[in-house]
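Field log, afternoon session.

UNIT: design team B
ACTIVITY: writing a sequence onto a fixed backbone
BACKBONE:
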């Protein structure tokens, strides 16, 4: 009898242990919950009162501080008088384009209503930001930092900093977002910005400025620097303090040290700064690059035991874009460091994968019916009333857009004639693709791709030819989401299209994106399975020709 009872007890214990293991396997990653109220407010960062878009009363908006694989649940209340969307710049939204927050995938949130974003920062670390993609709202605010920290079990290739600071730099207009939109709608271009802000402020330098950040002597700090502006590349530097680059848009880098960094629109860098100088105030400086008139913004960093003001003599910025090109060439992927997963970054040998498709993209400016437009391979994109992703999911794409209206190999003069229509590229799931950005214009471009990170294998002057592949970095190019293309130059990126969805490829220069320099890449899984893509969320907003329709039959495993 005793043996039977003992056996029964052991059996129950094994059942309980087995269930515990199953529960642990099924356990979800942690959830972070946010409630954001988006409103108008008045700010005066350049001394001129102007309307801004605030989130919970803040400009810039709140920082999101997350860790790899966290689930973000963010309930956004739109208290503006216009529809609104936010995008999460650089967050890949694996299998989940529904949360991307651009007009090609989402219906905008109507005024006076709310929408809950639900997404996971899956297998990512790094420095990112969010911003509005509707109208010209980005010119009024509603942007903020988004960081993804490494999990404790994943080693980071540097000692824990004393603190971790987000630095949002960007050019700024004193005109309202609605005035800027009217300018673009009338066919004109945006003029020169009025100034440069650092975390929504511009130090006056008269002794009245409060510090943006403080540092304890002898301690090392991480600064996450993102260019959230509209138009201009910015050079960032700190008086007397070198910047050790450790991370770039989700990738650990070789830890080179720089006196300053060129940060192009949409890009983010993570640097380490050590407080080892005389205890006083120091300026951090952001100034425009490649402009006839240089605009400069500055902010105070204060040592906790500081006893003196910052020197009025600001460190000089570099001149010309050759310097910036050489700096790009110095960036290298840290092959031995682990990012979001335990395996080293360099275990992915992208340089040994066969290219299945080459797409060349040529940007151009042109006037259509007397109004300024920007194009990609002769197509100036316009967002239809029905988001492209919804049209595709409901299988009514033929009523909304045509696939592949742009050529993969355009003629050099492709920008001389432009068609204004939705621009959607059909891309085979899991193919490894080479994309060439060729810039024939005299101004610098920055390009971003949603849903992915890519390997920026080359940025070079001149025009691209297949022979230029000999110049590619096929070993340790940094995996990132935004790349610059210098005037009369080209850039090459490589990636595997393994994330099913409808993904926006766009100019990060807001005027150019708004006036058509963007496209969408449709990546459909032939299996139509939950293994590859999530179903439309229950709270998805419907608009255009699918408004009021029931959801299609869901995907299954």
């Amino acid at each position: 009898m005793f043996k039977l009872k003992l056996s029964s007890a052991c059996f129950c214990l094994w059942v309980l242990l087995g269930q515990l293991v199953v529960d642990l396997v099924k356990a979800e990653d942690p959830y972070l919950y946010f409630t954001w109220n988006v409103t108008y407010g008045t700010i005066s960062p350049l001394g001129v009162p102007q309307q801004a878009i605030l989130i919970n009363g803040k400009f810039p908006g709140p920082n999101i501080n997350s860790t790899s694989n966290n689930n973000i649940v963010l309930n956004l209340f739109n208290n503006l008088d216009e529809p609104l969307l936010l995008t999460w710049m650089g967050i890949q939204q694996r299998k989940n384009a529904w949360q991307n927050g651009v007009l090609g995938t989402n219906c905008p949130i109507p005024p006076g209503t709310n929408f809950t974003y639900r997404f996971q920062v899956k297998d990512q670390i790094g420095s990112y930001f969010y911003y509005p993609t509707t109208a010209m709202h980005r010119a009024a605010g509603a942007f903020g930092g988004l960081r993804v920290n490494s999990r404790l079990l994943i080693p980071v290739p540097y000692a824990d900093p004393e603190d971790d600071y987000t630095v949002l730099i960007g050019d700024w207009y004193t005109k309202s977002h609605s005035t800027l939109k009217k300018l673009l709608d009338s066919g004109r271009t945006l003029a020169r910005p009025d100034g440069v802000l650092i975390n929504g402020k511009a130090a006056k330098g008269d002794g009245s400025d409060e510090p943006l950040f403080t540092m304890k002597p002898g301690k090392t700090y991480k600064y996450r620097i993102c260019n959230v502006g509209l138009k201009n590349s910015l050079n960032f530097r700190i008086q007397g303090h070198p910047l050790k680059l450790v991370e770039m848009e989700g990738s650990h880098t070789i830890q080179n040290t720089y006196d300053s960094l060129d940060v192009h629109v949409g890009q983010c860098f993570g640097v380490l700064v050590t407080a080892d100088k005389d205890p006083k105030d120091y300026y951090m400086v952001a100034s425009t690059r490649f402009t006839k008139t240089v605009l400069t913004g500055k902010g105070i960093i204060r040592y906790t035991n500081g006893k003196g003001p910052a020197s009025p003599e600001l460190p000089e910025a570099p001149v010309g874009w050759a310097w910036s090109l050489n700096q790009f060439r110095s960036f290298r992927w840290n092959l031995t460091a682990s990012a979001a997963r335990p395996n080293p970054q360099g275990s992915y040998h992208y340089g040994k994968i066969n290219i299945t498709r080459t797409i060349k993209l040529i940007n151009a400016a042109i006037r259509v019916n007397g109004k300024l437009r920007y194009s990609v391979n002769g197509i100036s994109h316009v967002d239809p009333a029905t988001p492209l992703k919804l049209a595709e999911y409901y299988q009514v794409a033929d009523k909304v857009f045509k696939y592949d209206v742009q050529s993969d190999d355009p003629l050099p003069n492709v920008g001389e004639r432009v068609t204004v229509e939705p621009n959607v590229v059909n891309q085979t799931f899991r193919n490894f693709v080479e994309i060439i950005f060729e810039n024939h214009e005299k101004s610098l471009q920055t390009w971003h791709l949603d849903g992915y990170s890519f390997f920026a294998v080359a940025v070079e002057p001149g025009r691209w030819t297949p022979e230029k592949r000999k110049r590619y970095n096929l070993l340790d190019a940094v995996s990132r989401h935004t790349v610059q293309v210098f005037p009369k130059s080209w850039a090459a990126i490589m990636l595997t299209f393994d994330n099913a969805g409808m993904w926006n490829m766009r100019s990060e220069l807001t005027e150019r994106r708004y006036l058509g320099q963007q496209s969408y890449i449709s990546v459909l899984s032939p299996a139509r399975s939950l293994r590859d893509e999530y179903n439309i969320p229950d709270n998805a907003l419907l608009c255009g020709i699918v408004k009021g329709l029931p959801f299609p039959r869901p995907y299954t495993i």
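LOG NOTE: The longest helix spans residues 2-26.
NEXT ACTIVITY: expression trials, pending approval
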